[in-house]
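Sample intake sheet
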Amino acid sequence: MRASNLPVQAAARHDPAWLGRLAWAAVGCVLLWPMLVLSEFKPWVLLEPGSLNPTLRFLGDFLPPKVEPEFLALVARETWRTVAMATAGIALALVLAIPLALLSVRVLSVSGLTGRMAVMPALLRQAVRALLIVLRSVPELIWALVFVRVVGLGPTAGVLAIALTYGGMLGKVYGEILESGEAHATTSLLRNGSGRLQAFFYGLLPQNGAELTSYTVYRWECAIRSSAVLGFVGAGGLGQMMDASMKMFNGSEVATMLLVFMALVALADRASAALRRALG
């Protein structure tokens, strides 16, 4: 009897909560299985001859990548256009997100200093929050499809799509960051006659500036990835060029653009990490 209890006692010494973790893992598997069945998740289809042979032929066309100078110059131009589209989209998103975030923050409401907010400020705050929900609930790919119809093919549609979706995301997270910060300095400024912008710049921004900037840089990095995907619906940049090469079954060109895009994302990741360290 003692020997049979040794493994249980040893597990309890290493991780006292092992039984609860095991139970939650079992519950997770039970919940996940019907979801996988409903989504028709069948990864073994990739190993069937009818799927494996075309996949191997397609991947074989990737080698060797195309490295002709004229093609590389074209890829470099479209890569720069992709970065410009992401940066311009984030800049417009900031123009949209910052005022919406300030309007949605309760701590900057003068009427909320005494407890319950007045009716009009409360309704305005809820309307702004609803607008942020609408903006971020529509994926940038859908916005790009809409704007391609409106303004035609090109980077303008991608910039506007990133601006709207990321404006909603940034505004929502900015508001949460400002709400979760220490509000004593801000409320003291407001109680002593300070304006809302003064209370923001001298109360909220100094203690939350690093976190706000870090999240903005992270979203810029995500926008670079999104701008390449938006190219597949005609929004310009490296994605549109890659889509054209894939339709022509030119694997060597696709391989070159994939390598360039991976290098671009790696550089953006390094740049954002360096800026976060500098801000930290």
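Comment: The CA atoms of residues 161 and 208 lie 28 Å apart. The chain is about 80% helix and 0% strand.
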